[in-house]
Amino acid sequence: MKSSVFRVERMDVPGGSEDIVRGGRDLFGLLPAALHGVERIGVLGWGPQGRAQALNLRDSLDGAGITVSVGLRPGSRSVDDARAQGFSEDDGTLGDLLEVAAAADLVLLLIADAALAAQHEEIFAVLKPGATIGLSHGFLLGHLTSIGSAFPAGHPVIAVCPKGMGDSVRRLYQQGATVNGAGINASIAVHADPDGHAWDRALAWSIGLGSPYTFATTLRSEYLSDIAGERAILLGAVHGLVEALYRHFRIEGADPVTAYERSTETITGPIARTISNHGLAAVRAASGDEDLFDRAYSAAYGPARDLVAEVYDEVADGTELRSVILAERRLATRPMTEIGGSPMWSHSAAVHARRDTAPAGIDPLTAGLFVATMTAQVDEFAARGHAWSEIVNESVIEAVDSLLPYMHARDVAYMVDNCSRTARLGTRRWGPRFQAAYEQIALPNLDRPADPELVKGFLENPAHEALTAAARLRPSVDISVG
């Protein structure tokens, strides 16, 4: 990572150090210089990321003479909300997707992955010479590679990838208004840099979104870790785990509300907060039964690691990307079904109602299974050569500082039914696989003694050091989603 405008620091991580840049509202005055001649930013799409990024960038660049405009497809249902947020056809800040793309110096491609795969040629064809192409996900690179294509020559290609959902990107930015920051960490990548200013533009974009901590990656590494992560610990594995545990506790004789608390509530509440504030190892100490935690961890780590590896391989060879594109064609005539019909979710309101009087504690069985799965993803990503910043953000920080708080406020089923289409499809495919692994392999082996080597590997895992370093740069306030 390099910059002629912002200060690049080195952060110590296991085995070395990595480049990072701290954010902060005190840096907003530097954004125009870092954007190097960008006078118009076109945000294509008004999904959760498009909405959040357009609003954050407009606020951060207020008074800088740089226009942020939103481009939508003809007939888009999002136009009314965009207008309500102050974007307007009258002043040129709202318009047709291709017209906005054609007028922009920096074009942020934030429409859905499958739609972008279908429309990228039209968008590329209208770009101004030398306009910068911006992505918040590497999906398009994977698609272009699979069809033997590439980004158009002569255009800088950069990525800024917030490590959280769009609602978190906007909400934490607003919460940070009085504390010089707060926001969602982001990775950045420079895929093409024909004019030599791509790193500065990417950093300006990230800081303008409110990222307190920006780290470098590659576009390929980003989509591999992002798509695999959302199918594993971020969404798919969590959904499979809570469904398996709810059934397990009910079979053991727990009433429905208690079973929900011991499965879902303990993960989205006390386990998430403990990891966010004190790290992974603190969950074991706080579980109240380290022997049961260790037995659960030992039973789950192997099958979870095997599944994470399988997910990763299918992302890497393009299988997951193709499945998303194929599903888009089916969903054009048949909407995706919701998963919230499972009986356990009918007890969500009762659990939420008793939080003040009987808050859930950390269940050691649930904690051991969850931490084993999170650690399995960490270890698999490390074995695949990902940088430590990317590993802990994609496997831990995004979960406990963005997604799990929303699951706590709504429930896991709500999150699965209201995330990106790529994530929803992946969760539906892999969640049941994780559920089966817990039900058929991990839970039946709880009576076996803990594996001392696995427990030792967890306690001495280099991820603890990496997470401690990254935690020093975590958002300065906890996200409020009530």
Automatic annotation (TrEMBL):
GO molecular function: isomerase activity; ketol-acid reductoisomerase activity; metal ion binding
One Pfam match: KARI_C
Residue ranges constituting the KARI C-terminal knotted domain according to the UniProt record: 218-358
Binding site for Mg(2+) 1: 226, 230
SUPFAM superfamilies cross-referenced by the UniProt entry: 6-phosphogluconate dehydrogenase C-terminal domain-like (SSF48179), NAD(P)-binding Rossmann-fold domains (SSF51735)
GO biological process assignments: isoleucine biosynthetic process; L-valine biosynthetic process
Known cofactor(s): Mg(2+)
Ranges for domain KARI N-terminal Rossmann: 21-221
Leader sequence segment: none
Database matches in PROSITE patterns: KARI_C (PS51851), KARI_N (PS51850)
Residue numbers binding Mg(2+) 2: 226
Pathway assigned in UniProt: Amino-acid biosynthesis; L-valine biosynthesis; L-valine from pyruvate: step 2/4; Amino-acid biosynthesis; L-isoleucine biosynthesis; L-isoleucine from 2-oxobutanoate: step 2/4
Entry keywords, A to Z: Amino-acid biosynthesis, Branched-chain amino acid biosynthesis, Isomerase, Magnesium, Metal-binding, Oxidoreductase
Family affiliation: Belongs to the ketol-acid reductoisomerase family.
UniProt protein name: Acetohydroxy-acid isomeroreductase
Organism: Kribbella sindirgiensis
